[in-house]
């Protein structure tokens, strides 16, 4: 029986046990009268005090009929109040509506963490575009936004960044309201004995605001999200590290960002939360796969050699992830991080996480204009290796083919 993870509160439930929401349409069999809206205090309480009273009135929630499987076959349950059928499933715990096909496929929750100004919102916007275009073409994959909210935000992100060349606004803190995740359906080729088909996976991207990562207490708001994650992408802004800031030439490019919570502190608090809330441990280390991505590598070019793998994208030849290429990047980033603040962040991560890989990426390919730091470069985003962390996590779950490297003792 399929298990569904709510992408909003991360509660797990059997798909056949999920309740449904009436659409309040006048197509029922009981006199043709639609149901009246009912107060959904479960949903309103989850969303927070900012929900106005009028929005608390929603379609009634009802349990599926006994013996109704709900998956496949094309059948839909009928509302016991009006008799109209509905495809809308809701979470048992928070009563959030699921997109119509969310429950019909595996889901992979990808946690995005990083201090304020590390570029999480820009990262997601560019990553989605690359998965639809360059990377999607290499793997014969497609990516589609799921649900009205993600479709709207997806469209707005693309218009802002690619049409208006405006960088995304910072993620709002949890104290200002609930941050909905972004839901996408990733479709990849499935090859088997009976021929080629498709494999669909729901990707859930949840972006924690930098302000919510300033302490272990603040990070506790995201406990359920972090503990449910199939993998974590931690974005590290190198310009937050004192030794890197000291090496940047003064007066070139945009001004350096204000110093926020240190990446080392975020990593330590993250590991503490995962240990406290039951994620498995391997010899004292958290087992959730951790992709540590140093962002803004375009600013690090003076520190890189002329043949650095960080200066070009991976080829993805044949729609296969080259693990040897990943290891080359991992070792270069590990070497760079060894020289930053005496290697404190590298040591922290390697002591806390059993499955760890280092990456370097640039979402824009060049710094924002010095006179307009809220704008993208005039040439538009020209990303470098932005897909690498996610593809590694997908490869760990055997969702994409991986060409294994022969390096002995290499990280997983």
3D structure, described in words:
The chain is of the alpha/beta class and 412 residues long. It folds into 2 domains: 1-103, no CATH class; 105-403, Rossmann fold (3-Layer(aba) Sandwich), CATH 3.40.50.300. The chain is built from 11 helices and 17 strands. The longest helix has 16 residues, at 148-163. It is globular and about 75 Å long.
What is shown here, in short?
This protein is α/β, with parallel strands linked by helices.
Cα shape: globular
CATH topology label of the largest domain = Rossmann fold
Largest sheet: 7 strands, mixed
> How many DSSP-defined strands?
17
The average pLDDT is 85
Instruction: Please bin the fraction of helical residues.
Output: 25-40%
Proportion in β-strands: 15-25%
What gyration radius follows from the Cα positions, in whole Å? 23 Å
Topology:
Elements: E1 3-5, E2 12-14, E3 20-21, E4 38-39, H1 41-47, E5 57-58, E6 61-62, E7 106-113, H2 120-132, H3 134-139, E8 142-145, H4 148-163, E9 182-192, E10 195-207, H5 216-219, H6 223-228, E11 231-236, H7 242-247, H8 263-276, E12 281-282, E13 285-286, E14 290-294, E15 321-322, H9 323-338, H10 344-352, E16 356-360, H11 388-396, E17 402-403
Parallel strand pairs: 7-10, 7-11, 11-14, 14-16, 15-17
Antiparallel strand pairs: 1-2, 3-6, 4-5, 8-9, 9-10, 12-13
Helix pairs in contact: 2-4, 8-10
